[in-house]
Write a structure and sequence with these properties.
Layout: H1 11-31, H2 40-67
Helix pairs in contact: 1-2
């Protein structure tokens, strides 16, 4: 019996990517509300979104590397 190679599953990384994109949209909404003046809430959205983008990229890279 032969075992077929499994295709990589990027579900969690795509989920994090979607949340990060929504966070970036929130950042731009908060930043452009008063003529692109960044307040603490806008910075929090930006940092959180960039962190989620990094996590999504790492998870996708790990899944691709694991499956090979």
């Amino acid at each position: 019996m032969t075992v077929s190679p499994q295709r990589p599953s990027y579900a969690l990384s795509l989920w994090f990517l979607g949340i990060a994109v929504l966070g970036l949209a929130q950042f731009y909404g908060k930043a452009y509300r008063n003529g692109f003046q960044l307040n603490a809430i806008a910075w929090a959205w930006l940092i959180g979104s960039l962190a989620l983008l990094a996590i999504a990229g790492l998870l996708a890279w790990r899944e691709r590397r694991k499956r090979g």
